Amino acid sequence: MIRYVAYFRVSTARQGQSGLGLEAQQAAVRNFVGTEASIVAEYVEIESGRKNARPQLQAAITQAKQENAVLLVAKLDRLARNVAFLATLMESHVRFKAVDLPAADEFTLHILAAVAQKEATAISTRTRDALAAKKARGFQLGTPANLTEEAREKALASLQHNAQTNLNNRQAAQLAMLLRATGVTLREIAARLNESGYRTRRGKAFHPMGVKRLLIK
């Protein structure tokens, strides 16, 4: 029986206390494990995805090694959005798996992490440039401290949703290109993307024509 050490990450203390995001991760992991395997330990980290110093993750890695278990996360972006960090993780020689990409090998994970890092940098740059352009046109930029808690949460949720949609699309395209380069058909690529949980920008399942559009972007 395969043994797993589950690692969950949420970005804020509020998410950790309310279960927002955490419950979805736990449900995905437990559904993946089913009855054919076991979870020997669970670790929850409240930390930014861009920071590499995460004590709970380090503890999870240590226990996974001791238990000869597999480190399991619900989504790859819960592990890292930084190539150097992911490389360090793999150099630790701990076995790990992401529920959203169960068949991914180390090379695929490197590629997806590189895409995620590039996208995070691009989002930061676009946001900074957009704010500078608005300010130059005379717009009065709001101060987050003057916004209501509800307004801040809505704005953050919108930004995170848009960023994640864009990131998922880029990751899907990158994976499609990798598979196509090895001779996999469009139909098989569509099936692989759907099995891995990827969806089109409209939230639909991928079909061969949709994969073709991904490849020519």
TrEMBL record:
Has keyword Zinc? no
The organism's place on the tree of life at top rank? Bacteria
Q: Which residues form a coiled coil?
A: none
Alphabetical list of PANTHER family matching this protein: DNA-INVERTASE FROM LAMBDOID PROPHAGE (PTHR30461), SERINE RECOMBINASE PINE-RELATED (PTHR30461:SF2)
Q: Can you say what this protein is called?
A: Recombinase family protein
Q: Which UniProt keywords apply?
A: DNA recombination, DNA-binding
Q: Which InterPro entries match?
A: Resolv_N, Resolvase-like_N_sf, SSR_resolvase
> Which SUPFAM superfamilies is this protein grouped with?
Resolvase-like
Does DNA-binding show up as a keyword for this record? yes
Please report the organism this UniProt entry assigns to the protein: Hymenobacter lucidus
Lineage, opening ranks: Bacteria, Pseudomonadati, Bacteroidota, Cytophagia, Cytophagales
Give any Pfam family that matches.
Resolvase
Pinpoint the Resolvase/invertase-type recombinase catalytic domain residues: 3-138
